[in-house]
Each structure stands twice: as C-alpha cells, then as structure tokens.
Amino acid sequence: MRSRLKSEYKKLIEDVQDTFRLGNRLHALAFKSFGLVYALTFATIFLIAVLPYAMNKILGNLIDVISGLVEGKGKVDQLNLLFGLFMAVIVLMSLAGIARSMFSEMTRIKLRVIFADMMTRKYSSLNLEHYENPKLNDTIQRARESYYWAPQNFIWDNLGLFADFSSIIVGAVILASFNASLVALILATSIPGFFLNYKNIRESWELERKESKNFRDTWWTRDYLEREKDLQEIWVFKAAKYLSDRAHKIYSSTLEKFISIDIKYSKLQVLSSLISNGGFVLIFWLLIKNVLSADITIGTFTFFLATTRGFSSSLSSVLSSLSDLLGQVNHIRDIFGVIDLKETMLNGKKKLKLNSSLPPKIEFKNVWFKYPRSERYVYKNLNLTINPGDNVALIGKNGAGKTTLVKLLCRFYDVTKGKIVINGIDIKNLDVNSWYDHLALLSQDFVRYHFDAKTNIRLGKLAEKRFEKIKEAAQKSGADEFIEKEFPKKYGQALSKRFSGGTEPSVGQWQKVALARAFFKDAPVLVLDEPTSAIDPKSEYEIFSKIFSLDEKEKKVDKSIIIISHRFSTVRNANRIIVIDKGEIVEEGSHEELMKKNGLYKEAFEIQKRGYV
C-alpha cells in the first residue's frame, strides 16, 4: 500500500512538472506566432474573471442603499451612481465576453494551423525506422489522432486556469478580510474532488496506452470498409460482416473498460460533492448568523455569499482544469515527443556534383544489412558496382532482397556494415537531398495523388513548370494517350472520384502516370521497382523501347537505369541482369549469357515462357 501511494505521488509530481513545462512551451509558441491576439485573449479572460466581484460589491451596496431609502435613510444620488456603475460593469462584461469568444476562437484556429503544419512536416521527415518500431508507432498514431485538438484544449484549459486563479486570488482576499478560516474551509472541502478527478483521468490514460494496439487494429479494419478499392474484394469474398463485427467487438469491449472506470469514480464523486457542498452550507449558516447578530448588513451578506459561491466555483474549476491538464498532458507529451524525435540517420554534408553528363558510379562494398529489430541478415558481404550508363535489371524470388537494395540505395536505411559509395563518396557523408537531385524513383507503392494529371506528373520535379516537358514525359510513359482521349479536362482532370468532376484511372493508367512522374524528373539515375506490373505487353514494349533506347541511333550513356521486375520481357533487354537469391548475387550477365549458364535465370525464364505457350 505504501509503495503504491509512493508511486502515485511520483506520477503526480511528474505530471505536474510536465504540465507546467509543456504549458510554458505552448505559451511561448503562441506568443511567438500570434503575440497580440494571445495577449488580448489573456486580457479579456482576466477581466471576465474579476469583474463579477466588482458587480457583487456594487450589488451589495445597492441593496443597502435601497434598504436605507425604504427606511427613509438613504440618498437617491448614491442609488443613481451605484445603478450606473452596475450597468457599466454589465456592459463591460458583455463586451469582454464577446471579445474573449473572438480572440479564443482565433487562438484555437491559429494553433490548429500551426500544429497541423508542424506535425505534417515532422511526419514527412521521419525515417522508416520510426514507423516500423511498434512502440514508437503507437506514440505516432496517438499523436496523429490528437494533434488537431489536444494543443487547443490544453492551452484553453491553461487560460481557464489563469482566469480561475485570478478569480481565486481576488475572492480569497475579500473572504479573508471577513474571516480567513472561510478560505481554509473551502480549500479543504474541494481537495477530495480534485484527487478523484485526477485519478479518473490518469487511470483512463493508462488504459488508453494499454489499449493502443486494439484502437489501431479497429481503425485499420474500418479503413478496409471505407476504401472503395478494398471493398471490391471484400464484397466478392463476403467478408464485410466479419470485418465489421470484428471491429465492433474489439472497439466495444475496449470502451466497456473505460465505462467501468467512469462508473467507479462517479460513485466516489457523489461523496466528494457532498463534502464540498457541506462546506458551502456551513459558510452560508455562518453568514446568516452574522446578519442576525447585526454584525453585517443584508447587502454585505449578499456580497460575501456571492463571493463565497464565486470563490468556491473558481476553486472547483481550477481543480477540475488542473486535473484535466494532468490528464491531457499525456497527449501533449506524445505530440511533442514526436516533434522532438531525432533522425536515426544523420544527414551528410557533402554535395554530389557531376562533372559531366555521365551518371554517378554506384558501388556496394562489402554490404551487410538487417532490418531494425531483426536478427536475420538480408545481405551478407554484398558487392556490386553500377557503372555510369548501365542498364541493370534485378531479378529473384519474392523476399530475395531486391527492393531492400533499392531502399539502401535511396538511403531509407543505413547499411549495418560495409558502405555504399556514390562517385567516390560514402552515401552516409552525402547530403541526401543533393543525392535525390540526381535520383528518380518509381516504387511498387507509388503515390496516387488526387490532384489533376498535370500536377501528378509535375510533382516529379516542381522546379520545372513547362507544360511541353510534362507532356513529353507522359508520351514516354504512354499516359498522354488516355489523358488526351479519355479525360474530359485532359491534363486538368482531377484523378479521384471523391472530388467533383474527378475520374478514377485504372491501375494500369495510374502506373503510367507514376512512370511519367519518374521520367519527368529526368534524373541521371532512374530506379524502377515493378514499373509495368499492371501495364499491357504492347505498352510495356513501347515504354521500354524508349527506356533502353533500343534504336541504335538513340543510344546514350547519360542515364543509369535500375529495374526490378518479375517480367522477363521487361528485364531481358537490360545490358546487365543480376540474379539475387537469399541476399546474394548468384548470377550476372546479359540475357544471352545467362541462358547459356543453365542456372536460376534460365530456369525461371523457361517457367515463365511455358505460361505463354
């Protein structure tokens, strides 16, 4: 029991420290980004917090003056003055309320924009290793689900805390002038509710962390049921009910645990509410007693009673806001935890500069590689040289390590041992963006942007704006034909039916658009991972006739091409074919040379050939 209390106390202290630390960080960010609006928000909140006490004081005096006038003792001038002040405070409170709503909404919107931008930029800068770490992925997912609301709520509760503290200080001074024990009594009767609320939020958060995997499972399962490309298969296999029931079962059983926590603490909150209300009733009785003994007037009684209620309400609000903040701080920890993530791969500083029209020389030297948190090596002592102008095709069974080689070449991962050298420079020492300036990639999971066709292609090289270059790339990939003939708005056609007037290209058409994007960059090194898996044979032949420059007159050495494909019609025209098996290069040569070796290449070629006979 003692160790448990010690642990709870330690958690509370950590949460309080982080609440103030992260709160200060949020305030600093807000003041830096929109200082004037934020300062005005503070000012209006402060006014609204303290003006009620002024109103209560004026109201108490009004009651005394009216009572005096009824008894023939008061002065009409005093009544008029107090009434005027009372109305002025009402108007000021009304105006302050309008201003607070306006400035608060501006604060919310600006924070939402700031964090949306910060998080989007951060997500795009993380390494693949971050996303493939299950524990870290849970944190990333929680941050993704909360960054659009948690910072606004957290800072709003901070502002509420400031308002309530202002109200409490003024109220405490007023009550202490009458009887200091009243302040102590209200404080003592409010504390149980605070601890219960904090415990409720803390326990709910611990459960949320524990159930992160189940929430992620539910969201992914529901995504399948909301994506039209997945639904087609789901309908045919009649899997919709299974997936829906599965998501419901996991989600509802998880939420039941949260409900149990709320029920448990709601019962305890009834007791804490009786304690706090009991304190107010006791103060009420003491004030009545003072009125009856003629120690205070009816107006003063009204003033102190209203002050007690305001002080008690502000104190409850402070404790509630503080416990909410202590709960919300976990979301803010996740968000700033993601923002503060360090790159697992340090970027180099050397720039890759090509001294001629030749592509760079690429060398894999004694490369060993295994994925993070894996003990199995994908590559052991791999050695491979790609000379300027080489057309290289990589083939092998699924899982042989072909795509991994591309990931290493793009420096999505660092090698475990050995090194990759680009034009004599270790890739780790290269500024990765200078390397990407010379590299174009079409991956298996290429991006399908909902933008128009022109923008989809232009994203390959945003600095190039000439439409004729966009069209040239589309012609090379075969995309120009259907863009011009089938799309009503041609290159201005949005490529998604989810937007008005948009269309949904076929899988093969999408692949041609993505291929055009890679061609549009016109980089010295072109990497194509299964570039024509969904394209018909005729189109494939036409595309690779252009890629490999089969016409002798068009042969050039200004581009190195690396292709991964299972189609032998795609790879056979490469001047170097590399066969990878179990992470090792087992065969290498031209199509004709490999066919003479009677090895894995010939065996796979004959198997595929029989499929066409």
TrEMBL record:
The keyword DNA damage does not apply. One of its GO terms (cellular component) is plasma membrane. The keyword Nucleotide-binding applies. Pfam families: ABC_membrane, ABC_tran. Keywords: ATP-binding, Membrane, Nucleotide-binding, Transmembrane, Transmembrane helix. PROSITE patterns: ABC_TM1F (PS50929), ABC_TRANSPORTER_2 (PS50893). Its main location: membrane. It is a multi-pass membrane protein. This is ABC transporter domain-containing protein. It comes from candidate division WWE3 bacterium RIFCSPLOWO2_01_FULL_39_13.
